[in-house]
Amino acid sequence: MVNKQAELLAALAKYDRYLICSHENPDPDSIGSMLAMYQYLRRIGKKVWMMCADPIPDFPWPNMSRILPFQDIDYQTAIILDCEPERTGKLLPLIKKAEVTINIDHHKGNPGSCTINYIDPEQAATCMILYQLFKTAGIDLDYGIAQPLYAGIVGDTGGFRHANTTAEVFAAAADLTTCGAVPSVTAQVLFESKPLEFMQFLGYALAKLNTKHYRRLVWLALAEQDFAEFGMDPRWCDQLIDYVRMVKGCEVAILFREMAPGIVRIGFRSNSIDIHQLAVHFGGGGHLLAAGAQMEGELSAIVEEVINAASKLLEGEEL
């Protein structure tokens, strides 16, 4: 990766006006990577904008207020983080105006369609890729870079609980902490700051858990009216899958969220089974043990189709 890092650092130094963006429904890794890249580019004298297609969470991290909703701007180079351009939603037409596109990601299914691509599925988070890149660049990782990088790594490792947590991840986290990242505040913000309304909704939702194959397959399906009844936005409830996978004996966990009538977003998680192939089968993608997809149709029909395919996967059959 040394040559790739050199190529990427040269590109970041070459141009003057950058647009940084990430995927719809932003998570800590996507937000953290945007914030860290923004701080780095500003430090080397570039003009930079950050944009996201969806509203962003209220995280107390440096430069959060500078992440803009969609607006037309005059820029040269688009940096797409933690996804391919097609997953940036309504930002895609703006990205297509770029003179140069740079893609940095760790998702397995990323086709690498940009001018410069740095795709490393072996990394636990896009923030890990940026951490290594900035270390190679030899810059001081101050709080403005260290805190968002640390938060992104914590988010994509599930608080260092997932199988992608390696010695390399722990070493990076320790270094970022030395540079100013605050682990206790990060953990509180990401895992211990849920609104009362969400906790009440959680109790309602978990009563709808379903299982199959002696609880090896566990899923939760929520309709649009389920969210509406509690005043919840389904876009901010992807963390429900973490509760689904807590069932003892669970090998495949699936969360179905009806985002709007006829539009269902699906999350897949596993501790050891390749559920990336399941997501790809339904037009999605992601990682080996964490993936997602979106389908159109009636919720009950989609649940039946996906659960049947997941059953085949557990039984060792081809999809």
Structure description:
- The chain is α/β, with parallel strands linked by helices and 319 residues long.
- The chain is built from twelve helices and twelve strands.
- The model has no long low-confidence stretch (mean pLDDT 95).
In short:
39% of the residues lie in helices and 19% in strands.
Characterize the biggest β-sheet. Answer: 6 strands, parallel
Into which percent range does the helicity of residues fall? 25-40%
Secondary-structure-derived class: alpha/beta
The CATH topology of the largest domain turns out to be inorganic pyrophosphatase (n-terminal core)
Major sheet: order of its strands?
3-2-1-4-5-6
Number of strands: 12
Poorly predicted sequence stretches spanning 5 or more consecutive residues: none
Secondary-structure element sequence? HEHEEEHEEHHHHHEEHHEEHEEH
Mean pLDDT: 95
How many domains, in number, for the residues? 2
Write the layout of secondary structure elements.
Layout: H1 2-14, E1 17-21, H2 28-43, E2 47-51, E3 67-68, E4 77-81, H3 92-95, E5 100-105, E6 116-119, H4 126-137, H5 143-156, H6 167-178, H7 183-191, H8 196-206, E7 210-212, E8 217-222, H9 224-229, H10 240-244, E9 252-260, E10 263-270, H11 276-281, E11 285-286, E12 290-296, H12 299-314
Parallel strand pairs: 1-2, 1-4, 2-3, 4-5, 5-6, 8-9
Antiparallel strand pairs: 7-8, 9-10, 10-12, 11-12
Q: What labels describe this entry?
A:
inorganic pyrophosphatase (n-terminal core); 319 residues; 6-stranded parallel β-sheet; 12 strands; 6-stranded mixed β-sheet; alpha/beta; 12 helices; 2 domains; Diaminopimelate Epimerase, Chain A, domain 1
